[in-house]
Automatic annotation (TrEMBL), chain A:
GO terms for molecular function: ATP binding; ATP hydrolysis activity. Keywords: Amino-acid transport, ATP-binding, Cell membrane, Membrane, Nucleotide-binding, Translocase, Transport. Residues 6-250 form the ABC transporter domain. This is ABC transporter, ATP-binding protein. SMART domains: AAA, NIL. GO terms for biological process: amino acid transport. The lineage of its organism: Bacteria, Bacillati, Bacillota, Bacilli, Lactobacillales. Pfam families: ABC_tran (PF00005), NIL (PF09383). PANTHER family: AMINO ACID IMPORT ATP-BINDING PROTEIN, METHIONINE IMPORT ATP-BINDING PROTEIN METN. The keyword RNA-binding does not apply. It comes from the Bacteria. Gene3D superfamilies: 3.30.70.260, P-loop containing nucleotide triphosphate hydrolases.
UniProtKB/TrEMBL annotation, chain B:
InterPro entries: AA_ABC_Transporter_Permease, MetI-like, MetI-like_sf. The chain crosses the membrane at residues 33-54, 66-90, 96-118, 160-182, 202-225. Gene3D superfamilies: MetI-like. Belongs to the binding-protein-dependent transport system permease family. CysTW subfamily. It is found in: Cell membrane. It comes from the Bacteria. This is Binding-protein-dependent transport system inner membrane protein. GO terms for biological process: D-methionine transmembrane transport. It holds the Pfam family BPD_transp_1. Residues 27-221 form the ABC transmembrane type-1 domain. Keywords: Cell membrane, Membrane, Transmembrane, Transmembrane helix, Transport. It is a multi-pass membrane protein. It comes from Agrilactobacillus composti DSM 18527 = JCM 14202. CDD domains: TM_PBP2.
Length: 356, 233
């Protein structure tokens, strides 16, 4: 069992406005394990940013309990950490933002140096460390440039170097790739993944782009209207999502729409010897010629009516909607065979499409 | 050449270079008043402007009460017309400087007259610093002092220089009124020696000199604001 590094229990955040009060985060409990890349997805306004800001208390929650590492930061409606300790704690929780938020009147290396101001390093050591950090994000040659002279992706890398200045254990990425083009987005995501593997950095990745989560996260929470509606491993969320919003995010909607369109033509007119199935398969089973095997071994015809492949991190996940045609006995054998081959088999009834 | 000048500007020449009412004396008086009240009023304005931003609801040390007190002080001082302020605070001037009249005595009302204006301008300039930048600084454990010095003041420095330029120019305008309490200066020259004595040539030359002064401040300010701005590559 991995060690829990961020523990949010029953956290609520309420903003008091003149007349109405807005509850941005409602009774959220999330436990993030050390070494996770934890994706939090949801549409804007879902409360994702507010939720992660309570981790380093940039946002004070209204109620709940916050523990980061061994330190409880907030409990029983109040901060239980001194301002000075909180500042030290914050240095161990790096954060990057959608708009980079660099100091534009300071050079790249000064930006990193700013984070090292209270690090007890002398000037020379500070300079050396800042340069090393810039080297890690491949920007050592831009040390003396001003941020405005860099591209968006480069600016975000400076921000990452700054966030990592005090060797944090956690990096919070608040929509850090949302303002970047796809190429830079992937570069930043791959960098985050590299840092995760090399430094054991725990990454909290807030985004509204499912592709980002698919690329690097291992766990996912889906937020809607201040509530975490679904939480689980990436594979789980992709193959077993229950909430409509989650399905929308993981793109299962596409599959179900395709099925709906095909419903009249195929599913609604299933012959007595036909059965409609959803097959989800991972990794190696993808490469096996299942359709051929089914026909050869069980004399079952498999008619693929929709097919899709997703790449989740390192894992390939395929989804097929098929119509199996054969005798009852043979169909059952075929299904047993598929299950043995680690394929998730779900039966789809006409008019009641279970899309995953 | 000198003769032609004497014909066109007889009064200007008569006024002389040094001594009471001399041109050099007036220039020095204007510079003296502008400089020192810019220092005193500037510090006061900067402190008040900073305090307004820091204690504001979205500031780093929000305090509704403190903000509203500072806000009201600035608003009230800003509402008093300068010429009335001159008279109104004469007793205070007496306490501080020991006299109510003269160039040095004018520094008190000038500083008090310019600081609320500057405070408001500083407030606007500092507000131009994106809240996200401050949040990012907090996320790396910056102290409030770090945020004030390295984020607010440094990030907004070009804006601060621009508003300082505007304030200095309006301060030069205020020094003209300080002539009312015998502070001298180019403004006083234009009114007392020029306008009041129907010596239009004096008014003209005094105005021209003020104009040159304003122009120098403007050019210098624009230049500094430009070279210290790295927000746009």
């Amino acid at each position: 069992m991995a060690e829990t590094i961020i523990q949010l229990d029953n956290v609520s955040v309420t903003f008091q406005q003149k007349k109405a009060s807005v509850q941005a985060v409602k009774d959220v409990t999330i436990h993030i394990q050390k070494g996770d890349i934890y994706g939090i997805v949801g549409y804007s306004g879902a409360g994702k940013s507010t939720l992660v800001r309570v981790i380093n208390l940039l946002q004070q929650p209204t109620s709940g309990r916050i523990q980061v590492g061994d330190d409880v930061l907030f409990d029983n409606g109040q901060e239980v950490i001194s301002t000075k300790t909180l500042r030290q704690k914050r240095r161990k929780i790096g954060m990057i933002f959608q708009h980079f938020n660099l100091l534009y009147e300071q050079t790249v290396i000064q930006n990193v140096g700013f984070a090292l101001k209270h690090s007890n390093l002398d000037k020379k050591a500070m300079q050396a460390k800042a340069l090393k950090l810039l080297d890690m994000v491949d920007l050592a040659d831009k040390a003396d440039a001003y941020p405005a002279q860099l591209s968006g992706g480069q600016q975000q890398r400076v921000a990452i170097a700054r966030a990592l200045a005090n060797d944090p254990e956690i990096l919070i990425s608040d929509e850090a790739t949302s303002a970047l083009d796809p190429k830079n987005t992937n570069q930043i995501l791959d960098l985050l993944q590299r840092l995760n593997t090399q430094l054991g950095l725990t990454v909290v990745l807030i985004t509204h782009e499912m592709d980002a989560v698919k690329r690097i996260a291992n766990r996912v929470a889906v937020m809607d209207d201040g509530v975490v509606i679904e939480e689980g491993s990436l594979l789980d969320i992709f193959t077993n999502s229950k909430e409509p919003l989650t399905k929308e995010f993981v793109g299962a909607e596409k599959g179900s729409k395709a099925i709906a369109a095909l419903e009249d033509a195929h599913l609604a007119q299933l012959q007595p010897d036909e059965i409609a199935l959803q097959l989800i398969y991972f990794g190696e089973s993808v490469s096996e010629p299942l359709v051929v095997t089914l026909y050869k071994n069980f004399n079952v015809e498999a008619n693929i009516i929709y097919s899709n492949i997703d790449v989740l991190g390192e894992t390939v996940v395929g989804t097929n909607f098929v119509v199996l045609k054969g005798t009852d006995d043979n169909r059952q054998k075929a299904i047993d065979f598929l299950k043995k081959a680690n394929v998730v088999v779900k039966q789809i009834k006409a008019g009641d499409v279970d899309h995953g | 050449m000198a003769k032609t000048l004497a014909n066109i500007f007889p009064n200007v020449i008569y006024q002389g270079w040094l001594g009471d009412g001399g041109w050099w004396t007036s220039i020095v008086q204007t510079l003296y008043m502008t400089f020192w009240s810019a220092i005193f009023g500037g510090i006061l304005g900067l402190v008040f402007g900073l305090a307004l931003v820091v204690t504001d609801a979205d500031g780093i040390l929000p305090s509704r009460h403190l903000f509203s007190v500072i806000d009201k002080i600035v608003s009230i001082f800003r509402a008093i017309p300068f010429i009335i302020l001159l008279a109104f605070i004469a007793p205070v001037t007496q306490k501080i400087v020991g006299t109510q009249i003269g160039t040095t005595a004018a520094l008190v009302p000038l500083s008090l007259g310019v600081f609320p204006f500057y405070a408001r301008q500083v407030q606007v300039a500092l507000k131009s610093v994106d809240h996200g930048t401050i949040e990012a600084a907090q996320s790396v454990g910056a102290t409030n002092k770090d945020i004030i010095v390295d984020v607010y003041l440094r990030e907004a420095r070009s804006e601060l220089i621009r508003v300082t330029t505007v304030t200095l120019i309006s301060l030069i305008g205020l020094t003209a009124m300080a002539g009312a309490i015998g502070a001298g200066g180019l403004g006083n020259m234009a009114i007392s020696y020029g306008y009041n004595r129907f010596a239009n040539d004096i008014t003209f030359v005094a105005t021209l000199l003020v104009l040159i002064l304003v122009l120098i401040v403007q050019i210098l300010g624009d230049f500094l604001a430009r070279i210290l701005d790295h927000k746009n590559a």
